[in-house]
Amino acid sequence: MSEFAAAAQDVWVTARRGLLRGRREPRLLALPLLQPVLFMLLFGVVLSGVVAVPGVASYPGFLAPGVLVQAVAVTAGLAAVGVAQDVRRGMVDRFRTLPVPASAVLFGRTAADLVRIAMTAAVAAATGVIAGWRVHHGPAAAAAGFLLVLTFGYAVTWLSVAVGLSVRGPGAARVLVPVCLIPLTFLSNVLAPPDTMPSWLRPLAEANPVSAVVTALRLLWGNEPAGSGATPHSAYPLALTWVAAALLLAIPLALHRYRRAPAP
């Protein structure tokens, strides 16, 4: 067996372990799958009659791409808790005693998380459709948008894995991940355009990488407010740049922390 085939098999075995673990612990998927449903019902349905965004014909249509990105980020963030649990239970030490490359273990782990991210994205998109969201620019734009969503979720997963390998335990991961993700997703353009925000908050929302991804999705899918001035040709590369920067930072850091993760 070639080295590539052996590494691919190691990745598959690790990914299969992660998927089977998800089947045994369905509560790990309950919150990520429920969150976009609740947000679309609360903001996109219940409050749509009193929320008005300039230049937007349908607030649920404006909201759905943001809720989709937010739900994917929450699902990806749970990777930190799972990795921290593996460290606490001694699973990382066991993996390190096996003739398996660190990269195979972590790429397998993140592949399993990517499947869960895709499930969350599907539920969020279905909920948005029920609430009135539509893609107006055809199947190619729809595919490009969902590819961006999955890539963004994969980058957040690697950041979460690095966090899970760095904190003291699962409890710390459960606290740290929401503390990071809640401001990142809410201080963005998920719920409202930055130009409707107070002047002191607007620069934070505009510089937020979540805003870059959400803007690219809205432009691709025809949900961006009229007169925003942004174009898909500028927004999509910017979003991909943020995603690439996160991956270039997180993957080497996670591999480094995996090799040096302390014993439980």
What are its keywords?
single chain, 264 residues, mainly alpha, 10 helices, elongated
Account of the protein in words:
The protein is mainly α and 264 residues long. It is built from ten helices and no strands. It has helices at residues 3-24, 27-46, 59-89, 91-97, 102-131, 138-164, 170-186, 202-207, 209-221, 232-260. The chain is elongated, with a radius of gyration of 19 Å.
Mean pLDDT: 84
Structural class: mainly alpha
| Share of residues in strands | under 5%
- Helix content bin: over 70%
Largest sheet: none
Radius of gyration: 19 Å
Amino- and carboxy-terminal Cα gap: 34 Å
Helix-strand topology string? HHHHHHHHHH
> What shape does the CA trace take?
elongated
How many beta strands in the DSSP annotation? Answer: 0
Low-confidence stretches: none
Describe the protein's topology.
Elements: H1 3-24, H2 27-46, H3 59-89, H4 91-97, H5 102-131, H6 138-164, H7 170-186, H8 202-207, H9 209-221, H10 232-260
Helix pairs in contact: 1-5, 2-3, 2-5, 3-5, 3-6, 3-7, 3-9, 5-6, 6-9, 6-10, 9-10
Quick structural summary:
This protein has 264 residues and is an all-alpha fold.
